[in-house]
Design goal:
By secondary structure, the protein is α/β, with parallel strands linked by helices. It has 2 domains: 9-134, Collagenase (Catalytic Domain); 137-219, Collagenase (Catalytic Domain) (3-Layer(aba) Sandwich), CATH 3.40.390. Helix content is 23%, strand content 13%. The chain has helices spanning 2-13, 52-55, 58-72, 121-132, 215-225, and strands spanning 45-50, 78-81, 91-96, 101-102, 110-115, 147-149, 194-196. Mean pLDDT is 86; it is low at 1-20 and 30-36. The structure holds zinc ion. Zinc ion (ZN) is lined by residues 13-14, 126, 130, 136.
């Protein structure tokens, strides 16, 4: 029962499209594929604001900001509330939504980041890492060396979730990443969408986790955005 509950949640985590949209007040996008990823964040700031209902919930604000800080605390990119950068043209607008969702990378203007799973800060971090510019780990350019995707186990409408993407920001393939799917995600019930290649050991034998940031999760953010300068 617990597994089924988790799977439903993770299906929802991993739906996204790209493209800027007006917000707040606009509808959530519903497509699940992405043709063109967004850009990196500039001027050392990852700017966010909250919808009024999230802003009024100090627990949710704290959850988001702690997740952001865990991702960016050792980097040169700073988690910046829009109140500190009111003229910043590009920002994430965090809403309490019906599913977990984020665009990939900076879209330009206001972009929605929707959280349903407020009770898991790592899922919040997963969505923020999308907004910072990362896709799912099993779409890594070198993924076929590590996993074998079984497209016949995936409904046609979800096969794009397993399309290889080269976003030029990937570190070494990381089975421990918060961005890695579980094998059953997006597969037909009772099936698995991918299998670990023979010879892989340890963490690779059970891909998918949402309880800690991996070393590579953080290292690849530092590699792209730089390391915080020491005072
Ligand atoms: Zn995702």
């Amino acid at each position: 029962m617990m597994k089924a509950t988790c799977n439903v949640a993770f299906l929802a985590v991993c739906v996204w499209v790209t493209g800027a949209q007006a917000c707040p007040g606009s509808n959530m996008p519903s497509a699940s594929d992405a043709a063109v990823a967004g850009q990196r964040w500039l001027t050392g700031r990852f700017v966010y604001s909250f919808s009024p209902d999230v802003a009024a919930d100090t627990g949710r604000v704290a959850t988001f900001e702690e997740a952001c800080q865990k991702l960016l605390g050792t980097t040169a990119l700073r988690c910046t509330p829009r109140s500190e950068a009111p003229a910043a043209p590009d920002f994430v607008f965090v809403i309490n939504g019906g599913h977990d969702f984020s665009y990939i990378g900076r879209q330009g203007g206001c972009q929605v980041l929707s959280i349903l799973s407020w009770n898991n800060p790592i899922i919040v971090a997963h969505e923020i890492k999308h907004a910072l510019g990362w896709a799912h780990e099993q779409q890594h350019p070198e993924r076929d060396r590590y996993i074998e995707v079984d497209f016949e186990a995936v409904p046609a409408r979800h096969r794009a979730e397993f399309r290889v993407r080269d976003l030029k920001n990937e570190g070494p393939y990381d089975f421990d990443s918060i961005m890695h799917f579980f094998p059953s995600d997006f597969a037909f019930p009772g099936e698995v969408a991918f299998r670990t290649r023979p010879g892989e050991t340890g963490r690779a034998t059970a891909p998918g986790q949402r309880n800690h940031l991996s070393e590579t999760d953080l290292a690849e953010i530092r590699a792209v955005y730089g390391v915080e300068e020491q005072q």
